[in-house]
Predict the structure.
Amino acid sequence: MKMKTLLKKIFLVDLLTGLCVTFRSQDPKKMVTEQYPAARPKIGERYRGAPRLNTNPENGESLCIACDLCALACPEHLIVVGWERNAQTKRKEMVTFTYDTSRCMFCGLCEDACPVDCLELTQDFELANYSREGAIWDRQALEEGPKPAKYKY
Amino acid sequence: MAETYLDSTELVLNMGPQHPSTHGVLRVVCKLDGEKVLGTDCVIGYLHRGVEKIGEHRTYQQFAPYVDRMDYVAAVSNGLGYCLAVEKLLGVEAPPRAQAVRVIITELNRIASHLVWLGTHALDIGAITPLFYCFREREIILGIFEKYCGARLTTHAFRIGGLQYETYEGFEKECLDFCDIFLPKTDEYEELLTGNRIWVDRLRGVGILNIDDCKAYGVTGPMLRAAGEKWDLRKAQPYSGYEQYDFEIPTGEFGDNFDRYMVRMQEMRQSVRIIRQAVAALPEGPITAKVPKVIKPPVGEVYCSIEAPKGELGYYIVSDGSTQPYRVRVRPPSFVNLQALSKMAQGCLVADLVAIIGTTDIVLGEVDR
């Protein structure tokens, strides 16, 4: 037994078994590295990324009913909803909507709170900005969604 | 501390806070005699964000995302502990399906946490290869998390009273596929490390912490089990339906670095066993218990602890009957385990200190909170 361990040590058996594992994993078919941004990653359907305010596809009107529930649900208090009462319909209408993505931790509590599926966290994940002010999204930015740079290869 | 530096053989050296092997912003003040460590002193707080204080100014639901940011490599366990504590305070219990899904997700997270530990710890010792393999397998788990709850790291997967999300189509299959892929991979890691002479020499007999010291310091989790104590909260105080599952508590013998490594490797295999059982017996039914929209627990206090990947994670919540907790106190496993560093490091070499910090498996987000 002692001879065997000694021989194993001399012939570097322990190190060679490790090397075997390394060589086995070098098959190009087993590559797992993603080639972002040349290849886009597949994002989960429920992914909580950039926020978006949904609009009615037929007439382009916002679905928001200015109920303020998202602002109340937010742990960071980063949503500010500005609204006016429509004189004819007597209903509240959202006028301004500010969403500070720099403070957002994407917990999803705001979209859970939204009763009309207006505020939604989407699969867009490229939120980089050149300034802090650029990270504060207004109503227009939220309705149009982020416009990340497209690269050509 | 030495009076003069030139005449004395003793030297005070700072390891960290910017040091790749302290796994974050830990500063260890070491007193050295040549290469030998005479004593260490941990300076923590560089990552202090006041999570407990934030909890006093958030409603019960709003605080849930913050606890994910303590131990960020095992965010799901943090969330589970918090949800269980509030549920205990409210006197509700999650329905069976929610409990089973919680077990699956938490055990997947335990594997992910141990994989990060194994990869980074091996990297500290000098074995670079396992890091890439560990992260390759961890990626599959994170993919499941992303599909299930929409986030990869700070998941916010569970809600008070149950779950927010129903499992997606193909969830069971993906979990079982992962189990099938993962089990041979654990053998692969062991092939790389367990027999390797450098690995064994660096770990065996270094950083010994025996049972009595573990108990004196309050050390829990794999570190306590490596010392030989069969203590696992999943068996001792079953929560979330863990009593239904058949698994073993792996233990070590000497309580040194190598035993801690072996215990964690075995734990990953046991987690796979639990996931397989939980997926096979996934019950149908509702995923949330009846919880009011505005959570106002009765006046009282509660302590609830779970077995997180790093040890006993406890939440102590005091309620004054309002919508916000009066006080939230977290008992983080990393913080308590780190206290034993000085005891373990005495008499070892500076290079061993890196190995000891590695097998303690600390996450500074949890130590500092």
